[in-house]
TrEMBL record:
It comes from Acaulospora morrowiae. The lineage of its organism: Eukaryota, Fungi, Fungi incertae sedis, Mucoromycota, Glomeromycotina. GO terms for cellular component: 90S preribosome; nucleoplasm; small-subunit processome. This is 13189_t:CDS:1. Residues 439-450 have a biased composition (Acidic residues). Keywords: ATP-binding, GTP-binding, Hydrolase, Nucleotide-binding, Nucleus, Phosphoprotein, Ribosome biogenesis. Residues 451-465 have a biased composition (Basic and acidic residues).
Length: 465
């Protein structure tokens, strides 16, 4: 009798059993960590020392957190040589955060960048004194570098270099720095662009630290940098954490975003070098500031404060915490840059009234059909009135009885004047002239009419008798 051959076993090629078996085999092939422990005691000591050094480098001295419940805006300084795109970068960031198009970047510009963060952008001039003042207050520095030229070494001794500004930052606590390479569109060869990026990155790391963040901005489109590149930079700025510096954490300081001269204009005209009374507006940082406190104003000197007043926040944070900011919560406050309807000049304040209650006509002369509320309709109807309310009252009439002659408003106004005066309109001017009516005129006065009436009644009585 022939023996029957059994079916050969075929292992699974896929499925959960196959994955379970493969995972078990990999676990058996893992290396034993104890097998690679240092055999030498000297090597073990070096590894232990290195591990402790890494742990100690991560530690830092704890500082007192003086940040209030509603923190002041983070000061972001945009620094770089001329013609590197500082103004264009600020305009692009403001457009990204608030949807506003800036015509000029003058003075500090404060925007709401998140639910718990605001940013104040300041453009630094190519001046040593300005750079020193910026280094004292900046929390974050955007260092712009022209990639087509490299790190600039100026020929004039009065103008500062890029590396000199880094030394200034080191003297004042060395705040956070982000490098930004611009004018990358001038490179036509991709290989040259790649080599230049790598060379500038390592040179930037040598001056700052290994791994310093460096962003790349290509050409300008419609007066701004590309949206995706600005989006990456703005997201990184919004989530960056700042460690408080010792000097700023123990002293009060204020970045003035608006200045008003309250000196009497007549006194300033008579004596241009007289003592001035100046009001400075801004967000207070650091510790508290008191009245009659001695402060230092860069370029002016030491002075005493006469008064310190708490004002409403011109650019407040959103009241309700949501997942994202709404369009109404993306505020901007730039009093020197003609934004928000108010612009502060040297000697005046200009307020731009929006066309909420004005008629806007298109090129064809037809009015725009926009949905309006009842209040807006009432205001626009008042604008349609061809004459004033007083002139309309003169044309109105009122009937006291059913069949009586209606009395007009103009007649009532004339009857209120007695017979001693009457009004005449002067065609040559807008003013109203009133002429005096004397007794010898044919109209007479009220006393003449009364005497005539009495005489007529006496004559009637005599004739009757």
């Amino acid at each position: 009798m022939d023996t029957k051959e059994h079916k050969a076993h075929r292992p699974r090629q896929s499925g959960s059993k196959k994955d379970k078996k493969t995972k078990k085999q990999k676990k058996q092939q893992e290396k034993n960590p104890k097998a690679f422990a240092p055999l030498s005691g000297r090597k073990a000591d070096k590894l232990a020392r290195r591990k402790q050094e890494i742990i100690q480098n991560k530690l830092h001295v704890p500082l007192v957190d003086r940040t209030p419940t509603e923190p002041p805006p983070v000061v972001v300084a945009v620094v770089g040589p001329p013609q590197t795109g500082k103004t264009t970068l600020i305009k692009s960031l403001v457009k990204r955060y608030t949807k506003h198009n800036l015509t000029e970047t003058k003075g500090p510009i404060t925007v709401v960048s998140g639910k718990r963060r605001r940013l104040t952008f300041i453009e630094s001039a190519n001046d040593m004194n300005c750079m020193i003042d910026i280094a004292k207050v900046a929390d974050l520095v955007l260092l712009l570098i022209d990639a087509s030229f490299g790190f600039e070494m100026v020929s004039e001794p009065d103008l500062p270099e890029t590396f000199e500004f880094l030394n200034i930052l080191q003297t004042h606590g060395f705040p956070k720095i982000i490098g930004v390479l611009t004018h990358l569109d001038k490179f036509k060869n991709n290989k040259t662009l790649k080599v230049t990026k790598k060379r500038l990155k390592h040179r930037f790391w040598t001056e700052i630290y290994q791994g310093a963040k460096l962003f790349y901005l290509s050409g300008v489109i419609n007066g701004r940098y590309p949206n995706q590149e600005i989006h990456n930079l703005s997201r990184f700025i919004s989530v960056m954490k700042f460690r408080p510096l010792v000097w700023r954490n123990t002293h009060p300081y204020l970045v003035a975003d608006r200045v008003e001269d309250l000196t009497d204009p007549e006194e300033a005209r008579k004596n241009p070098i007289c003592d001035r009374t100046v009001t400075l507006y801004g967000y207070l940082r650091g510790t508290n500031m008191k009245s009659n406190m001695k402060v230092h104003i860069p370029g002016v000197g030491d002075h005493y404060l006469s008064d310190v007043t708490v004002l409403p926040d011109p650019c407040p944070l959103p009241d309700k915490v949501r997942k994202s900011l709404s369009e109404k919560q993306k505020l901007i406050y730039a009093p020197m840059s003609d934004v928000g309807g108010i612009m502060y000049d040297k000697d005046a304040v200009y307020i731009n009234v929006p066309g909420n209650f004005t008629k806007e006509n298109n090129e064809d002369g037809d009015e725009h059909e926009v949905e309006q509320g009842p209040g807006e309709k009432m205001v626009i109807d008042l604008q349609d009135a061809p004459e004033t309310l007083a002139s309309r009252l003169k044309e109105t009439s009122l009937s006291i009885f059913a069949n009586s002659v209606p009395i007009k408003g103009a007649e009532v106004e004339e009857s209120q004047h007695n017979g001693s005066t009457r009004s005449l309109d002067d065609d040559e001017s807008d003013r109203t002239r009133r002429k005096v009516a004397f007794e010898n005129e044919e109209n007479g006065t009220y006393e003449d009419f009364e005497n005539d009436r009495i005489n007529l009644e006496e004559n009637k009585d005599n004739n009757h008798t």
